[in-house]
Design goal:
It is a single chain. The protein is α/β, with parallel strands linked by helices. It has one domain (about 10-175): Rossmann fold. About 45% of the residues lie in helices and about 20% in strands. The protein is built from five helices and five strands; from the N terminus they run ββαβααβαβα. The chain has helices at about 45-50, 65, 70-80, 105-115, 130-175, and strands at about 10-15, 20-25, 55-60, 90-95, 120-125. The strands form two sheets. A three-stranded parallel β-sheet has the order 3-4-5, sandwiched between helices. Strands 1-2 form a two-stranded antiparallel sheet. A hairpin with a 2-residue loop joins strand 1 (about 10-15) and strand 2.
Length: about 180
């Protein structure tokens, strides 16, 4: 059920570490990676900046949906990672696993793309059971937690280095 006032937002609940975590999620169509942005901060870029992680879904029966993933990952990484080089959690999901007889994209192709783009990979059937979707969001939540922890650790080390550098810089100017 969509919340009122925000027609493009839906809420996802997933079980994490024995408790519940609320994960707001957006669903939208990307502009082509080759299309230039009409202005510096498009709605798409604002959504990318807002998000902590991404789930990109393609149909295993649709080669075009699979082929659109690489540019989407590149757009996300360009907007999100930037000069800070922080790693953004992205999960690539092949859906419609139950339609293996109509498969146009192999599992191996999905795995290779995910590995080459430094993303997680899952192949699920949303039609058969919800367990696959739970695994996807649980995996994404774990990657987001790891990324936030790494960022905190990095900031802690940076602040220590800055403090130590400031102390030595002060001593150097005091002794001159």
């Amino acid at each position: 059920m969509l919340p009122r006032g925000r027609p493009d937002v839906f809420d996802v609940f997933t079980i994490l570490a024995g408790g519940f975590s609320h994960v707001p999620a957006w669903s939208w169509t990307f502009r082509s990676a080759t299309q230039p942005s009409s202005h510096k901060s498009s709605p798409e870029e604002k959504r990318i900046q807002w998000a902590d992680g991404f789930v990109l879904v393609y149909s295993i029966c649709d080669r075009a949906s699979f082929n659109s993933l690489r540019p989407k990952v590149q757009v996300i990484k360009a907007a999100k990672e930037g000069p800070s080089q922080e790693k953004v959690p992205i999960v690539i999901v092949g859906n419609k696993r139950d339609l293996h007889h109509r498969r146009a994209v192999s599992s191996e192709e999905g795995r290779l793309l995910a590995r080459s783009m430094d993303c997680e990979f899952y192949e699920v059937s949303a039609a058969e059971a919800y367990h696959g979707a739970v695994m996807v969001f649980h995996g994404l939540a774990e990657r987001i937690s790891e990324a936030k922890l790494a960022l905190k650790k990095g900031n802690g080390i940076r602040s220590i280095v800055k403090s130590v550098s400031a102390v030595f810089a002060r001593k150097r100017t005091d002794s001159m």
